[in-house]
């Protein structure tokens, strides 16, 4: 089952920060400089965390993934620019 996540980070080093941002782009959409939204199943979340863990310095960096229930994610409000990330409809033939 897929779940909506808001993901944010605070990473001191520019190189590590850029590396984590690139990893997150493989899984979701950037909505602010250090905030992403992603719709992930359990396997995707584990893979994301594994890849990010390799890039982080646990003594200096912070990474957080907040799951939102279906009802909560439908109540997200955006003011100004941007839209809420949607699960793309993909048809494989």
Mean pLDDT: 88
Helical content, roughly?
25-40%
Number of helices: 3
How are the strands of the biggest sheet laid out side by side? 2-3-1-4
Contiguous low-pLDDT stretches (5 residues minimum) are none
Number of strands: 4
Which structural class do you get from the secondary structure elements?
alpha+beta
Sheet bearing the most strands, described? 4 strands, antiparallel
Topology as a string of helices (H) and strands (E): EHEEHEH
Radius of gyration: 14 Å
Q: Termini, distance in Å? A: 22 Å
Shape: globular
Q: Give the amount of beta strand, in percent.
A: 25-35%
Please characterize this protein's 3D structure.
The chain has 93 residues and is α+β, with helices and mostly antiparallel strands. Helix content is 32%, strand content 27%. It contains three helices and four strands; from the N terminus they run βαββαβα. The chain has helices spanning 14-25, 42-55, 70-73, and strands at 3-10, 29-32, 35-40, 62-68. Strands 2-3-1-4 form a four-stranded antiparallel β-sheet. Helix 1 packs antiparallel against helix 2. It is globular and about 35 Å long. The model has no long low-confidence stretch (mean pLDDT 88).
Give a quick precis of the structure.
With 93 residues, the protein is of the alpha+beta class.
Topology record:
Layout: E1 3-10, H1 14-25, E2 29-32, E3 35-40, H2 42-55, E4 62-68, H3 70-73
Antiparallel strand pairs: 1-3, 1-4, 2-3
Helix pairs in contact: 1-2
Give a quick set of tags describing it.
four-stranded antiparallel beta sheet, alpha+beta, 93 residues
């Amino acid at each position: 089952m897929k779940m909506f996540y808001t993901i944010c980070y605070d990473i001191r080093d520019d190189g590590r920060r850029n590396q984590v941002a690139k990893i997150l782009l493989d899984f979701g959409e950037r909505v602010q400089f250090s905030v992403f939204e992603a719709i992930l199943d359990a396997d995707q979340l584990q893979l994301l965390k594994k890849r990010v863990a390799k890039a982080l310095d646990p003594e200096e960096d912070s990474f957080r993934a907040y799951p939102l229930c279906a009802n909560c994610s439908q109540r997200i409000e955006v003011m100004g620019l941007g839209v809420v990330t949607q699960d793309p409809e993909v048809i494989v033939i």
